[in-house]
Write a structure and sequence with these properties.
Layout lengths: L2 H5 L19 H22 L7 H8 L3 H13 L3 E3 L6 E2 L5 E2 L2 E3 L1
Antiparallel strand pairs: 1-4, 2-3
Length: 106
């Protein structure tokens, strides 16, 4: 198996994927990263419980989490059906002069 296929290894049905091993972490590291990711998802979901529509950068500013961690947590929560990605009409201009999608709790 090469590095590319290891990155996208097959996961058994019903197994949650909270961490994407893009850095070839060892098994003990991967276990810790997965635990950390689940905690970050809980923090991000708590922010959305206010009912507000938020971008990943707004979540970052409110939580103090790393921007990439916020984006990963939002994507995982969206894929789990806990967050809804809003359409183009709800996009807002964010830092770096780019339009960003907003999300809300389902």
């Amino acid at each position: 198996m090469n590095k590319q296929t290891e990155l996208f290894e097959i996961i058994p049905n019903g197994t949650e994927r909270n961490w994407f091993n893009t850095i070839s972490a060892s098994k003990p590291e991967l276990q810790q990263f997965t635990k950390d990711a689940k905690g970050q998802e809980a923090v991000v979901l708590k922010v959305f419980e206010s009912g507000e529509k938020l971008t990943a950068l707004e979540v970052k500013r409110r939580t103090g989490l790393n921007q990439d961690s916020c984006k990963r947590a939002i994507t995982v929560l969206k894929n789990k059906g806990k967050l809804l990605k809003l359409g183009k009409d709800d996009m807002v201009l964010e830092e770096y002069g780019k339009m960003n999608h907003r999300y809300r709790i389902k």
